Design the sequence.
């Protein structure tokens, strides 16, 4: 079963397709390729083709630093939901390297981790897990909408006296 | 002590709602046990041998009477009438039902308590010196910094799925009662020549299978940089810590395998990127948090000491208690008082609901409404007027809480062991009980003097045996429990890892072996003031080997 893409509060069609390292680049279209292939091909992308790198848990996002201004999408892989390296990857992409495009979580992406992923800069989620799909379709939000760390999500505002506390801009302390 | 504002109250109650929903989805089958496990662990819920276990956070071991009464209520309502205080200054309930846990958490939230991050591969409950804000030798109170770290680490979005658990301890005194050098991050608050506050920072200490003493990475980290530097350490650990083997996943292994200098350079490089950012602590904010920990109004008077002395002269039990369980306080006429949870022959760290209520009453009446849990599994009344000690002692005696053994041979740390724990390979509580009974005579304990015995029921070392003056590690060999003895460990400012003395002893033999070690020490010490650890460091292991195994 293919993953479904969740973005900005709803499921959307995915214009991107994954391409194996062995497969030839298409003449046009938007394709996700491994980080190594992306780095090798980035200087010579055919007209009409858009590339996005697929960043695995052990990959160093610093390798993308020189390319980010030309990118629309970075996919960060969670081979296992319990491997938290992708959170640092996303945060570095946003905070250190100033990436403004889409950061998409892919792989073992589950409902309970999505609020944390959002806070470190993810804004799209490729989801396979059936209960997670159902919960998102039902609009089931599992966030604790009060935060004790400044993080990387746009639209958070300071909350209360502490310099490190935040809350979503659209939420009230009710 | 710290009090929740509106933000904190909403935060904790939203976290309870979140967990209630997670339990509901687990019971409905939407979460597999593998998916649910880290979620419940991050809320302190373990699946143990016989039942679920709930570990409640007591941040840096500080609580008030109302909170202690609520713990008593939970023990009575949802458990079997008692709770178990742990080496991380927390409390564990051993018999709750999973479906009751959200209600228990809601009851805790009403008194500003929670179970957030008492387990799991995340930043755990921050611990601190149990005499913080009271000890005569303290340079400054570490609790405001522990509280700031607690807040920053709560539901941290980047650091909730670390390679392994991560423990931080803070002390503000030169004599380290918080064991900072056996923590992933150990912080010792200091002042520089100008009076500025900063921290000596140790990284990579830990016990478990591979005990290591933390390495000093900063001689003076300015207080404003506390969060940014901690975040730098955590980011380096999250990215580079090993994830292929859970027994090699703590930051101590990363320090060991990467090398201290290289890792320090990585941390400093990360820190340089973020030090001037949003995590820099404004002094106004430190002051605002510190104000919660302002000392109470102390009111000793002339003549107080005479009242105490007269009572001591008339009551040998009180005299023994005052000699062992009363500790120097920074305010004249005051003391900190250890309430031993190690009565002879009982399970270390256990307290009944009734005993918790007695302690709550005493804290309210005599102790400025403050209670501490020590990592040695005792309770502490940090601020008591010395003239009130006789009355407190009498009330404690009635509740069977007046054991005068703080720091003595029967003040044993022990993990729950095979009686409760799913990981254990041997019993530890019954060994502690039998040693306690063997050395029960108060005169004998006093003659032996300061001695820390620590017992773990498996190699994960929750009983901190590596840093016991005498450590006991229970292992399983061909279906039998065996106990390895280590000597010379310590978790203070001169931290050392104990050395294995030789082959292990059976469950039946181990108490005799411990007695031999103790008697050997008493026989060879130069003066009665030379404590076990000093004597061991002077003479080495040979006399103890000979006593245990004969001269080969």
Sequence:
């Amino acid at each position: 079963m293919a993953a479904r893409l969740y973005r900005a509060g709803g499921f959307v069609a995915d214009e991107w397709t994954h391409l194996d390292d062995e497969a030839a680049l298409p003449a046009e279209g938007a394709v996700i390729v491994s980080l190594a292939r992306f780095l090798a091909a980035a200087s010579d992308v055919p007209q009409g083709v858009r590339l996005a790198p697929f960043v695995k848990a052990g990959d160093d996002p610093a390798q993308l630093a020189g390319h980010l201004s030309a990118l629309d999408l970075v996919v960060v892989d969670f081979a296992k939901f319990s491997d938290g390296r992708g959170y640092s990857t996303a945060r570095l992409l946003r905070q250190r390297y100033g990436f403004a495009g889409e950061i998409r979580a892919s792989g073992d992406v589950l409902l309970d981790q999505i609020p944390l992923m959002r806070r470190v800069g993810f804004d799209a989620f490729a989801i396979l897990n059936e209960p997670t799909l159902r919960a998102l379709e039902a609009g089931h939000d599992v966030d604790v909408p009060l935060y004790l760390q400044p993080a990387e999500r746009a639209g958070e505002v300071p909350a209360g006296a502490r310099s490190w506390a935040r809350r979503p801009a659209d939420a009230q302390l009710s | 002590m710290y009090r929740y504002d509106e933000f904190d109250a909403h935060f904790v109650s939203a976290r309870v709602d979140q967990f209630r929903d997670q339990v509901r989805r687990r019971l409905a089958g939407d979460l597999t046990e593998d998916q649910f496990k880290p979620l419940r662990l991050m809320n302190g819920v373990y699946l143990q041998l016989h039942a679920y276990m709930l570990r409640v956070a007591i941040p840096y071991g500080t609580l008030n009477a109302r909170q202690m009464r609520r713990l008593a209520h939970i023990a009575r309502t949802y458990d079997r009438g008692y709770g178990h205080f742990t080496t991380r200054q927390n409390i564990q309930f051993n018999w709750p039902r999973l479906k009751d846990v959200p209600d228990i958490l809601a009851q805790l939230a009403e008194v500003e308590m929670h179970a957030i991050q008492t387990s799991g591969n995340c930043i755990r409950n921050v611990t601190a010196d149990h005499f913080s804000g009271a000890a005569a030798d303290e340079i400054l109170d570490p609790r405001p910094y522990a509280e700031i770290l607690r807040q920053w680490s709560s539901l941290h979005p980047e650091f909730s799925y670390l390679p392994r658990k991560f423990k931080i301890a803070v002390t503000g005194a030169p004599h380290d009662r918080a064991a900072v050098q056996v923590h992933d991050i150990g912080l010792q608050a200091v002042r520089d020549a100008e009076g500025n506050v900063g921290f000596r920072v140790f990284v990579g200490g830990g016990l478990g299978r591979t005990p290591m003493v933390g390495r000093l990475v900063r001689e003076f980290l300015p207080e404003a940089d506390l969060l940014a530097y901690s975040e730098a350490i955590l980011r380096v650990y999250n990215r580079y810590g090993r994830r292929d083997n859970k027994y090699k996943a703590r930051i101590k292994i990363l320090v060991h395998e990467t090398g201290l200098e290289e890792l320090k350079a990585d941390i400093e490089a990360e820190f340089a990127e973020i030090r001037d950012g949003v995590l820099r602590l404004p002094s106004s904010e430190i002051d605002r948090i510190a104000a919660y920990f302002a000392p109470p109004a102390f009111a000793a008077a002339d003549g107080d000491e005479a009242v105490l002395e007269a009572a001591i002269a008339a009551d040998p039990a009180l005299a023994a208690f005052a000699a062992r369980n009363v500790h120097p306080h920074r305010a004249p006429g005051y003391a900190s008082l250890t309430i031993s949870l190690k009565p002879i022959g009982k399970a270390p760290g256990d307290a009944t609901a009734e005993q918790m209520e007695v302690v709550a009453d005493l804290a309210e009446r005599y102790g400025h409404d403050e209670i501490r849990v020590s990592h040695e599994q005792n309770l502490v009344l940090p601020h008591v007027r010395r003239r009130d000690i006789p009355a407190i002692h009498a009330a404690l005696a009635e509740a069977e809480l007046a054991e005068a053994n703080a720091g003595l041979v029967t003040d044993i740390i022990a993990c729950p062991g095979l009686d409760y724990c799913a990981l254990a390979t041997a019993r530890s509580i019954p060994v502690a009980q039998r040693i306690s009974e063997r050395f029960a005579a108060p005169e004998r304990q006093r003659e032996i003097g300061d001695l820390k015995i620590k017992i773990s029921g498996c190699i994960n070392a929750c009983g901190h045996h590596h840093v016991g003056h005498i450590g006991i590690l229970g292992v399983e060999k061909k279906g039998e429990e065996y106990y390895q003895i280590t000597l010379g460990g310590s978790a203070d400012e001169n931290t050392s890892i104990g050395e294995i003395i030789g082959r292990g002893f059976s469950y039946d033999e181990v108490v005799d072996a411990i007695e031999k070690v103790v008697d050997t020490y008493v026989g060879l010490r130069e003066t009665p003031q030379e404590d076990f650890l000093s004597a061991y460091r002077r003479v080495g292991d040979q006399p103890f080997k000979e006593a245990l195994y004969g001269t080969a």
User: Anything to note?
Assistant: Chain B touches chain A at residues 5-7, 10-11, 14-15, 18, 21-22, 25, 30-31, 35, 38-39, 121, 151-152, 154-162, 227, 235, 238-239, 243, 273, 278-279, 281-282, 285, 288 (CB under 8 Å). The two ends of chain B are 58 Å apart (CA to CA).
